[in-house]
Amino acid sequence: MSDPRPSWHEYFMSITELVAQRSTCTRRYVGAILVRDKRIISTGYNGAPSGISHCFDVGCLREQQGIPSGERHELCRGLHAEQNAIIQASLQGSTVGGSTLYCTNMPCAICTKMLINSQISEVYYREGYADTLSSSLMAEAGIPLIQLG
């Protein structure tokens, strides 16, 4: 008899989608989790830093300035889900080196650089992202970047 449970990849990816529901971004809901030894060590979603007004309260700076998706990431009130997952692990005193990132979206180049320096071992994501530099950096760093359907 086959196992009716979801695979580990399906399980963790479905959790990223639940985490994404906490997003405070008005443009895109993104969730990320860091996993080591089949245990979640941290979660993150995109949104404004703690104590800062959320975009759905004050409006989207990127929309107001007509900035296209995938460009000028620094012109945003929010942090990306991957950034928040790394920060949350740090606040808990956990290292992220050797862990696996599951994310609803492919990381941008800025997050990719953080993931490389954090020594993430592999990245699984659901949807693509308009950032070819990210995939090039991951390949050069030898970090598998795997899209799950």
The Rg value, from CA coordinates, equals 15 Å
Report, as a whole number of angstroms, the end-to-end distance. Answer: 25 Å
Q: pLDDT below 50 for ≥5 consecutive residues: which ranges?
A: none
| Count of discrete alpha- or pi-helical segments spanning 4 or more residues | 6
| SS class | alpha/beta
* Global shape: globular
**How many beta-strand elements?**
5
Helix content range: 25-40%
On the 0 to 100 scale, the average pLDDT is 92
What topology, given as strand order, has the largest sheet? 2-1-3-4-5
Outline the secondary-structure elements.
Elements: H1 8-20, E1 31-36, E2 39-45, H2 55-58, H3 61-64, H4 81-91, E3 100-105, H5 109-117, E4 122-127, H6 132-141, E5 145-147
Parallel strand pairs: 3-4, 4-5
Antiparallel strand pairs: 1-2, 1-3
Summarize the structure in words.
By secondary structure, the chain is α/β, with parallel strands linked by helices. 34% of the residues lie in helices and 19% in strands. It has a 5-stranded mixed β-sheet, sandwiched between helices. A hairpin with a 2-residue loop joins strand 1 (31-36) and strand 2 (39-45). Helix 5 packs parallel to helix 6. It is globular and about 55 Å long.
What tags apply to this protein structure?
5 strands; 149 residues; 34% helix; 6 helices; globular
Q: What's the short version?
A:
The chain is of the alpha/beta class.
